[in-house]
Amino acid sequence: MAVEIWRPMREMRRFADEMERLMEEFPFERHLWEPMLGARMRVFPVNLFRRDNDLVIEASLPGIRPEDVDVSVAGRTLTIRAERKEAAEVKEENYYYRELGVGRFFRQITLPIDVQADKAEASYENGVLRLRLPSVAAAKEAHIKVKAIPTK
User: Fold this and answer.
1) Which residues pair with 125 in a beta bridge?
2) Which of 37, 77, 82, 84 is the most buried (most CB within 10 A)?
3) What is the pTM of this model?
């Protein structure tokens, strides 16, 4: 019998996927019932990896304009906020399907290392936000001279 390691985040993803599936089967159009859930923030997928001495974050934000994206770093916490606005040129009654989420999107990530936020770079291409956060330079080793104190 094989032993499977319990991974709580995998279980939470399964639960979220099942809830999403159940909500998709809800008998009314999504845009009718979703506002009743409150002002929830939608999340978006990200990649976080190390390249040389930098952290690189890629966030999938299709259909969101760069000026509607806000990025901040406080200590080891990276926060990305974005907003996809309603398409004003389409009237509600003209939709046959309406699955693209509109509203606010939010993601907060604990960074695995300290970064120099003031030297960060951000770019946005084809719906993908790319951040490059240089890591804090490793502290240089310092030798401390031990001074003997004469005994009386």
Assistant:
1) 128
2) 82
3) 0.62
| Other Cβ atoms within 10 Å of 121 Cβ, number | 10
* Residue of 126, 98, 89 whose CA lies nearest to 33: 98
Q: What is the DSSP string of 45-82?
A: -EEEEEETTEEEEEEE-TT--GGGEEEEEETTEEEEEE
> 15-44, pLDDT tens digit by residue?
777 776 676 666 655 555 555 554 455 778
Q: Domain boundaries in the chain?
A: 40-134
DSSP code of 22? Answer: H
CA 88, CA 103: separation in Å to the nearest integer? 13
CA 89 from centroid of its chain's CA atoms: 30
| DSSP-assigned letter for residue 112 | S
